[in-house]
Amino acid sequence: MNFAFSEDQERLRASARSFLADCSSTKQVRQAMETERGYDPEVWRRIGAELGWPAVIVPEEYGGLGLSYLELVVLMEEMGRALLCAPFLSSVCLAGNALLAGGTEEQKQTYLPTIASGERVAALAFTEPNGRWDASAITAVARRAGGDFVLRGVKTFVVDGHGADVLVVAVRREGTRAEEGVSLFVFPADTPGIERRPLPTLDQTRRQAEVALRDVRVPASALMGGDGQGWRALCRTLDLAAVAISAEQVGGAERCLDMSVEYAKQRVQFGRPIGSFQAIKHKCADMLLRVESARSASYYAGWAAAEGSDELPVAASLAKAYCSDAYFRCAAESIQIHGGVGFTWEYDVHLYFKRAKSSETLLGDAGHHRELVAQRIGL
């Protein structure tokens, strides 16, 4: 196992950091989060058409670049540093991975090329008002209606669900429980019976929505895989998404550390920069330890995903649990180091604090993933 990135991967990191410095400054982030979609469509067009980021993990036969999950980890880390407002996580890491894991050949040929180019945004509608991330949380149902299916239920906390062009929806057969009977469907978001509304959330840099299924009639060709056989693909999708978001959390935590160190060097109190005080030094040292430990966990999970290792489920949950804690603690400490101004709108620290809290709960919080680790190693 080699934890060093290749020259090509380091060049990808450098180009991503340069692009995001120009197109995802904090001023641009603040402008994007005020818009209806929550991101700048022109920046997203450039990300897809010029940079090809949405195509990174999509195989070449579906219009992608066919690269590995390590390249995705590099990109997600840089996006987290820049607090990028874009539907990358939703379209590529959630819905795109669901199609790769459980879609039919026809569905992959239909949807993946336009997802890879960024022309269409896709979203995964999984969680419901109960807020849980296990199979038993799925209560939306699908019933047969001749040669079609009719879907009914309410999905919430759907990342970028309000503006998505394509929906991947998790439902179950009536009368089934837990992992039994879970199915995935993919269909256009403008299908009759779909009602969507954006949710007022803490973190406006990543929009979430409620998606109501009001007797949505879809053809049998919308079913991904076998009827009632969707949980395995969904579980793999959530593991891969956890790896992606852990890398994003590492980038955000590192940026919190950088902002804290910079401020501690500039802010003078009692005639000295506050960075010279032992208490501030200790906070920064603890943040550095958390960032580097989180990076190790994230990179290991990325390696497991890239290699198709059997360790992926455990490594993904370990990374998500540790990186969630690390990012939130670093964001909280950064606010403390900034003092009273850390809570003000003018400073950027609160944006990272809100993203840290949102990312902590997305895909399940640290407690949920520690429980998954215990289950997956047989405890």
For this entry, give a set of tags.
16% strand, two-stranded antiparallel ribbon, 8-stranded mixed sheet, alpha+beta, 379 residues, 51% helix, 10 strands
Strand content: 15-25%
Q: Tell me how many strands there are.
A: 10
Helix % is: 40-55%
Spans of 5+ residues with little confidence (pLDDT < 50)?
Answer: none
Radius of gyration: 21 Å
Assign an overall shape.
globular
The assigned structural class equals alpha+beta
**Discrete helix count:** 11
- What average pLDDT do the residues reach? 95
Q: How would you characterize the largest beta sheet?
A: 8 strands, mixed
Q: What oligomeric state best describes the polypeptide chains here?
A: single chain
* Termini Cα gap: 27 Å
- Order of helix and strand elements from N to C terminus: HHHHHHEEEEEEEEHEEHHHH
